[in-house]
Every structure is written in C-alpha cells, then in structure tokens.
Amino acid sequence: MTQTLDRPETQTPQSLPQARVDAWLADFEAALAARDVQRAAGMFATDSFWRDLVSFTWNITTVEGPDGVAHMLRSRLDDTNPSGFRTSEEPTEADGVTEAWIEFETDTGRAKGHLRLKDEGAWTLLTTLYELKGHEEPRGTARPMGAQHGANRDRETWTEKREREGKELGYATQPYTLVIGGGQGGIALGARLRQLGVPTIVIDKRGRPGDQWRSRYKSLCLHDPVWYDHMPYLKFPDNWPVFAPKDKVADWLESYTKIMELNYWSNTEAKSAHYDESASQWTVEVERDGQPVILRPKQLILATGMSGKPNVPDFPGMDRFRGGQHHSSAHPGPDAYAGKKVVVIGSNNSAFDICGALWEKDADVTMVQRSSTHIVKSDSLMDIGLGALYSEQAVAGGMTTEKADLAFASLPYRIMHEFQIPLYDQMRERDQDFYDRLEAAGFDHDWGDDGSGLFMKYLRRGSGYYIDVGSAELVANGDVKLARGQVKELTEDSVVLQDGTSLKADLVVYATGYGSMNGWAADLISPDVADKVGKVWGLGSDTTKDPGPWEGEQRNMWKPTQQAALWFHGGNLHQSRHYSLYLALQLKARYEGIPTPVYGLQEVHHLS
Ligand SMILES: Cc1cc2nc3c(=O)[nH]c(=O)nc-3n(C[C@H](O)[C@H](O)[C@H](O)COP(=O)(O)OP(=O)(O)OC[C@H]3O[C@@H](n4cnc5c(N)ncnc54)[C@H](O)[C@@H]3O)c2cc1C
Known about the structure:
The chain contains 19 helices and 25 strands.
C-alpha cells in the first residue's frame, strides 16, 4: 500500500516532495501489480540506476536505464510480487532532485530502499531485503525469554546448551555453513547467521579471535573512525577512541565472538575443500588443534581476508641478501631496528605506517616508491569525506549507522566518482601546502585516474593510497628518505634499483600489498575453481588495476559466484557490517529451502 494522498484538512498540507514521491510510488506499484513492465521501466530516466541488494534479484546487482530495468523485471517480477511501497519519512528536495526513504515487501521478505527522482523520472533506486517473512530475527519484542519459568525436570541451562552444541556441531551434526576465516568479516557474518538460526561454524587457523589484528605491526591503529567501524548488533561504546588501536580492536572481536555466541573454532586450519555437485555438499578437511576433522557443510564462505594473501615479490638476489626481509604483514614493529638501515618497498598505507614507526625508533629509513600513490590527510577525510554520514555530528543529527550504510549504498557505483571528485577537490584545496611540500620532496602523488580519490581506489583496486596520520610529513621533510623506481635486484647488503641507485639495508620490508581472494580458492579448492570464479574485488572501471568491462558491483563479493555454494566475504569494517546482512539472508533463504533464482549472475572476465 502506498500512503494516501488525501489527508484530513486538520493536518498540515502534504509537502510537494511527499506528494511527488507518493504519486511515483503509487504509479510504480500499479504498473508492477499489472505486470506492465514497459510502464514501470518507463518511469525511470534515460540515465538511471536500480541497485538491488537481494530483494528482487537474489543477487547484488545494478541495472541501468529503462531497458535494464525492463530486463530485470521481466525475469524477476512474477516471483517477487512486490507491494506496499511507501515512504518511511518525509522526502526532501534539493537541486532538482527529490529524495525519499522507502519501504515495501515482496512475497518472501520485507525491504527498505531509497529513491531519487528527477523531472524525467527515477534517477536512482536502491532496494534492499532486510528480513525474510516467517524467519524474522529474535530481537526486540521477539527477543528470547532466556529463563524458562516453571518446573522442568529436563531443564538444560544456557551453559549446558552451549556446551552441548559445541560438542555436537561438526561431529554428530554438520553445520549448514562453514566460514573459513574468523577475522572481523567471518565474525560479523557468523553473528548474523547465528541470529538467523543457521547452523554455522567459523574456523580460523590462529589461536584467538582478534589475532588477525594482534599480529599486525604494533603501531597500527584503525585508519577509519569509530562511527564507520561498528560491528553488527553491538556498537562500540561512546567512550571508544576515534581510531582504535589494533589490540583493542582484537579484544573487542574476541569478546564479541563470545557475546554473540558464535561457534568459533580457533587453531583450526582448512586444508582442502571439495564440492560434490550430486550431493550439493562440500567436504572440507580441517585440522583442529592438530587433529583432522572432516566437515560437510552445504555452503562454504571464504572470509580469508582481502588483505590476507601477501603479494611477496620475487626480486633477483633475495636469496643472497644477508639482512632481514619480510612482507609487511609479518613486520613485528620497529623495536629491533633502532639505528639500523631499513628499506621499505612500497608507498601505500602499510609502507607509511611502518616507515613512521621505524623513524620514531631512530631507524634510518628509506621508502622505495614504485608507482604513484594517493594520500589524503585523515582529518580532511573525516571532515569532508565521511563527516556527513559517519561522525559525532552525524550521530547528533539523528543519523544511525544503518541509515548511513544505506545512504552510502544508494549511490550506484557507475556515478559514485562524480560525487567523490568534488570532495577530493575540496581536500586538495584545504591541504594544498602539504601536497606542494610532498611533491617538492619528489613524491609521485595522484588523485586516482579520474580525480575521485581514496574510496574509489579502494573499491576499484583495494590499493594505491595512504590515509595520512602523520608519516607523510616525514617523507615531505626528508626524515624518511625517498627513492623512486623499480627494484632491479638485491645484493648481499643492498637493494638496487633499475637506475642503479643502491640502498644499503639491514632489513627490507616488502609493503607490496595483497593478492586477489580467489587465490584462496586456488589453494583450498583447486586452480580450476579459482579460475571458474575469477577475480574477486573491483568494479570493472577500466582504471589502473581494475580492468573492464564494467561490472556495476564488486566482483564476487557477498553474492553468488560461478561456483555453486561458494561465497566470498570481507572488506573493511563498514563493508563487513553492511554486506554480511545480505550474504546472511541469501544463505538463510537457501537453508530454509526458499527458492532463490539468481538474476544477473556475473560473468568472469579476469582470472586474478
Ligand atoms: C595494515 C592494515 C590496516 C588496515 N586498516 C583498516 C582499517 O583501519 N579499517 C578497516 O576497516 N580495515 C582496515 N584494513 C583492511 C581490512 O579491514 C582488514 O584487513 C581486516 O582484517 C579484514 O578482515 P577480514 O575478516 O576480511 O580478513 P582477515 O582479518 O585477514 O581475516 C582472515 C582470517 O582468515 C584466516 N585464514 C586464512 N586461511 C585460512 C585457512 N586455510 N584456515 C583457517 N583460517 C584461515 C586467517 O588466519 C585470518 O585470521 C587494514 C588492513 C591492513 C593490512
């Protein structure tokens, strides 16, 4: 049902934006109800985007223009049978665009969304499933009782029940889903699946939840501010630091795992996985505390980290170099290197953090920049880039994390850079002195291929930037030395660049980034399955390290892949939080036997 356009005269007259949105929603719903796809599609502007997170498509996908909308609706409208389109708050209007938060339902679930209308019709539409009918989460008014009042000779306490579950699951009973990788991604997904009642085990080869963060270099604090970083269900308290130190994040994750009652197996490494098509079931060999266990889940999720598979370069002479050398992921921190010569290969986040910490301990540090890097000052990013949605001011203005996540999701990737470019123009202007000094020091700085800055680089290639929390200044003023060029080789005691520059080193740190997540599938399942699934991450923007064709969404993340029952989950804390909901709902629907015909399963264009 749409909201009525007629209101009693005693009420304030309906605003123009409200009337406009109500009329559009009513027409749209009528066209959908009449299965008049052409009419519904005709309500979209020529340049328009409908981004759907699972509610219509059982996929994460964006269709473009009236033709794209018609194509999707022809395939999905009958099954979806949407109704009840209405606004959930008063629409607003600015610069010729009317914006509205909406709600509706389908035959299987309840959904929320966001609409932007222009004169020509809908410009952007976001539709997102948030719960399955009949499978609502037991929370709020539906929260569990906890206590069992009355007399019961078979009473089992909460602890006994948890212990029994812990003993049986994976042995006497099988999990429906197995999440390999218990970092923040696996933990967030595990919490959602727990809430949805999907039997799940999260395994991690490390000793304790949070060890992913504990093991990183000791100076590390989150680069993103607290408002952006909440886990699902349980927000950080309001005394939580803006940039949480890594070990504090680790402890939070460990506590969260307990509080959210995850079946989390530490010290458990997945050794191999094989999918039996006929039984629609995985056989996964794991080693738990050194003992082999065979798990037979129906769904397998790789949450093994997009910053988890180190890209270790293969430079000539690495075998004869007599000093220390390690990838940034294995860097222990600066303490052992006071007074030593350290060469850090790379010029992105980890490189800067590591250089800064080494300099603080009096190491003689040289950064080797091999390609251009985008740097943005943390303060400017917070104020200009994130402030409207994720900040104390946003919270004070009534912005919830969930609403901020949807607002973020409402911008289709195809046009997101157009919104980002002006923000980065502002940052450039604000910090012009800094950029001048940095470039004068010889640093090769860029703003992304199209000037759209950090977030688009992250989405497109997951690399190529540094959120400056101070170390860039050390490069600008020469405290950390800068060398530019490709590495030719290592000798017994030096790193030699292609131009002949020789850099003496006691330690070489390879801050050379991480590989595509389908590399994990190659290791665990098979190279064939990794190729079948293809590259993970990126939008197909045809910019550096993100080859086309255009995909419209992040490749293979949180949605069905070309390999049945294989999924990828991860990303930063914001993405893990937000997209774990849609992945969990897709898994829950399959667990409950709800048909999930996937629209627009992505094609594979790149192997890695
Ligand atoms: C230096 C650095 C700083 C970062 N800063 C931020 C930040 O400020 N904010 C932010 O949101 N993100 C940040 N990130 C990016 C990202 O959010 C983190 O990398 C985060 O840890 C990713 O979480 P994840 O759960 O996807 O993967 P991970 O934390 O990498 O967890 C993957 C887990 O999989 C396990 N695993 C892998 N293979 C197996 C196997 N075969 N069997 C069992 N377990 C296995 C690993 O042990 C690991 O614990 C940063 C990344 C790095 C490297």
